[in-house]
Design a protein that fits this description.
The complex is a heterodimer of chains A (229) and B (228). By secondary structure, chain A is mainly alpha-helical. Chain A contains six helices and no strands. Classes of the chains: A mainly alpha (229), B mainly alpha (228).
């Protein structure tokens, strides 16, 4: 397992470079937006990758609540952290793209707003993990993850209704996409997913090691109480 | 040994205990009232609204004030039980945890409702409010909105109790999750006050939110209470 990591890292780097080349050079220029549209190859794959990791976090949290396996908790924390990073990428690349195309940095449109709320919920999840100490923390965090997942459909529908009442200057995609663009898009998604998976894996390993260290320390302090030294 | 711990008896006993404690100390209600009053005054200085404008923004002001004030009561919910290890006694007692949770949530519901009853006349006077829509609808909006705040608030207070700097942790957990509920309360209230749009969608949203999170809290509360 450990030896596979550098090989996978090299493969991922190669895939990322190839995807970058495809996105910047090979993919055709957009008829309406010109070259600025190419940020789509980072924005949308990041969003999809983010969803994958948040779903992993939710499943791992439920598994933890049912089985209480420490591995599930390690998966949950690693997925949440990687998910928050990709969510931040989405929130940063979105305005960068919106400014030249829509003329504004930000609009309280349903997707933007619900992505922001998603980010807020998972940041509060990570804060809870940091502030709650001891063995109870994974349980509390898993409960919060379940609440966050239940909240998301409500967030989406409420903001959707809130915003569709007031028309926006924003026109979402629509129309068909050039098959060559779709190809580059999916390639970039694959590259991002591999990269995210790689980071996720090393973070997971780190968390498992941390759990082992904590366990060993707890055992140690049981065997030699401080007063006896 | 007989088991006197039927859910109903636990619920009523805990609720009465909390109400009596609050009646004697008036800690939560006094601090909530004064806090909400400050929010009203500060907002009216900051915006200085006309009658027409205040109708537009009052829904937001009222609920933000209630949300902030409710956190004061919610923080005391479980912290009160830490003294003399009462919470540990609950854990080992055969009392059903969900009855305990519902009693706490109902207690908070009563505190926040009393706050709303006392504060609403003040809002009406300070912001010269008059509803242009069906005013009676504000009652279900207030009931559903308050329950949405306290059911999650009571649950998250039980979580934040176990963290460092717990007083600040509660709003950090509660506010992001409460965004749909807050949207529902604010927009329903604004719709009723301005009379321009129907409030039905928002009331249905609040009711859905209440049902979803009441069930989720009841399912997960025992797990959180027993977390070691």
């Amino acid at each position: 397992m450990k030896r596979a990591f550098p090989i996978l890292a090299v493969l991922t780097a190669a895939l990322l470079s190839y995807a970058l080349y495809e996105a910047l050079v090979v993919a055709p220029t957009d008829a309406m937006q010109g070259d600025v549209y190419r940020i789509i190859y980072y924005h949308v794959p990041s969003a999809w990758t983010m969803f994958v990791f948040f779903i992993v976090n939710f499943v791992a949290s439920v598994v933890y609540l049912v089985r209480r396996s420490a591995k599930a908790d390690a998966v949950a924390v690693a997925a949440a952290e990687v998910g928050v990073v990709f969510c931040s990428v989405v929130l940063v690349t979105g305005p960068l793209w919106a400014r030249p195309v829509w003329g504004i940095w930000w609009t309280w449109d349903v997707r933007l707003t619900s992505t922001l709320v998603l980010w807020l919920i998972y940041v509060s999840y990570l804060m809870l993990r940091r502030f709650a100490g001891g063995g109870q923390m994974p349980v509390l965090a898993a409960a919060l993850a379940v609440f966050g997942a239940l909240d998301m459909p409500l967030v989406y529908f409420s903001i959707w209704f809130f915003r569709t009442q007031h028309p926006q200057p924003v026109v979402g995609g629509g129309g068909s996409i050039d098959p060559r663009m779709l190809h580059v898009w999916l390639l970039n998604w694959l590259a991002f997913l591999c990269f995210g998976g790689l980071v996720f894996w090393s973070r997971y390993r780190l968390e498992v090691l941390q759990q082992e260290v904590d366990e060993a320390e707890a055992l140690q302090s049981l065997l030699e109480p401080r007063g006896a030294r | 040994m007989s088991r006197p711990s039927i859910p109903g008896a636990t619920l009523v006993a805990t609720l009465i205990k909390d109400l009596r404690l609050e009646w004697r100390s008036k800690d939560a209600i006094n601090s909530m009232l004064f806090f909400a009053l400050l929010v009203v005054v500060v907002f009216s200085f900051s915006f200085d609204p006309e009658a027409e404008q205040s109708r537009q923004i009052a829904g937001g002001l009222v609920w933000v004030a209630f949300l902030f004030a409710a956190v004061v009561a919610l923080n005391q919910t479980w912290a009160r039980e830490l003294r003399n290890q009462v919470l540990d006694a609950y854990r080992v007692s055969p009392a059903p945890p969900n009855a305990l949770f519902l009693a706490k949530a109902l207690g908070n519901f009563i505190f926040v409702s009393v706050l709303e009853l006392l504060m609403t006349p003040l809002f009406i006077i300070f912001y010269r409010l008059r509803a242009l829509g069906p005013a009676w609808l504000l009652v279900p909006v207030a009931l559903l909105g308050t329950w949405a705040l306290v059911v999650n608030g009571t649950f998250f207070a039980a979580i934040s109790l176990r963290t460092r700097s717990r007083e600040i942790m509660l709003p950090l957990l509660l506010f992001p999750i409460s965004i749909p509920a807050l949207l529902g309360m604010v927009n329903a209230t604004t719709a009723i006050l301005t009379g321009e749009e129907p409030a039905r969608f928002w009331i249905v949203l609040l009711a859905t939110y209440d049902v979803v999170f009441t069930i989720a809290s009841l399912v997960l509360f025992e797990t959180v209470l027993q977390a070691e």
